[in-house]
Amino acid sequence: MKERKGIILAGGKGTRLYPLTKVVSKQLMPVYDKPMIFYPLTTLIQAGIKDILIIINPFDQDLFERLLGDGNHLGIKITYKVQQKADGLAQAFLIGKEFIGSSNVALILGDNLFHGETLETHFTKSQKKDNGATVFAYPVKNPERYGVANFDNNGNVVSIEEKPKSPKSKFAITGIYFFDNSVVEKAEKVKPSDRGELEITDLIMMYLEEKTLHVEKFGSGIAWLDTGSHESLLAASSYVKIVEERQGLKLGCPEEISWRKGLISDEQLIEISKPLLKSGYGNYLMEKLNLTK
Predict the structure, then answer these.
(1) Cα separation, 255 vs 34, whole angstroms
(2) Helix (H, G, I), strand (E, B) or coil at 146
């Protein structure tokens, strides 16, 4: 199985969250009790990815580095690259070309939150595919806001449309994508859309035309939240609060997932926890250790 690196796209303009984003990246905004960036980062670690590039705005670099460092405390490697101008999701592969090198890659949007017991099964299956692309479809009430996957009567995807006025299905393409190494070459061929952006839909369509696109449908046991607006940010915070309070677990906790995957030791988790005891975050991590002894 070929190595797969990960990219978190945490740049962008953040205009939908103005004035919150006038002075700080939306991916540093709180989703209940954690910065938004913790959730996609945790998802990539959960998917078994340990070499991660975070694409950021130039004025946010110091803040991200102060928050996450080089990832050593999580047993992973984190590097950063600046997006000087937001020109669409497919631009991530042009910015990350050197980082990707000869590896396969997964891209996750920095304002997307995923939760569900079967997530890891989906990701493990996608990780094993060395060729082609895998994207995930999720039923939504307002598909016109997203890239929409259209299927034939046999359940095979026949097209992907970006924000269609009259969607042919209710299945939106979510903000996590698994690509083989040819994604860089393909991204270089993407032309700006009418919106002036390099659309990831055009990139996905190249795989569809090659018949190497896999579309998996997320079932009802998985939650997908896009936290890029005031309303959805509040809804995501409420969702995380309810799940955490009722189930006694934390969503988007990269330290816990790194520990569970054996990337950091019990001793390292204790060291991480000590300065965080007053917030309750450190106590939660300590409890994970106690439960195993």
Answers:
(1) 12
(2) coil
Q: Does residue 292 carry a pLDDT above 80?
A: no
Is there a single domain that holds both residue 233 and residue 284?
Answer: no
The reply to whether the predicted model has a pTM over 0.90 is: yes
Across 54-69, b (16+ Cβ under 10 Å) vs e yields bbbbeebeebbeeebe
CA dist 97 and 74 (Å) reads 24
228, 111 Cβ separation under 8 angstroms: yes
119 plus 240 within the same structural domain: yes
Domain span at 217: 4-262
Q: State how many domains the chain has.
A: 2
* Domain identity same for 111 and 90: yes
Q: What is the DSSP letter of 142?
A: -
Radius of gyration for the alpha carbons in the chain, expressed in angstroms and rounded: 19
pLDDT in tens, 65-117: 999 999 999 999 999 999 988 888 999 999 999 999 999 999 999 999 999 98
| CA 264 to each of CA 73, 195, 256, 275, 285: distance values in angstroms, whole numbers, following the listed order | 8, 44, 9, 17, 13
Say if residue 150 is in the same domain as residue 274. Answer: no
Q: 3-state class of 11 per DSSP?
A: coil
H or E element that contains 96: none
Same domain, 239 and 271: no
Q: Does 267 lie in the same domain as 209?
A: no
Q: Give the C-alpha separation, 114 to 74, whole Å.
A: 20
**Residues contacting 288, CB < 8 A, separation 6+:** 256, 259, 269
Phi, psi of 135 (to 5 degrees): -125, 165
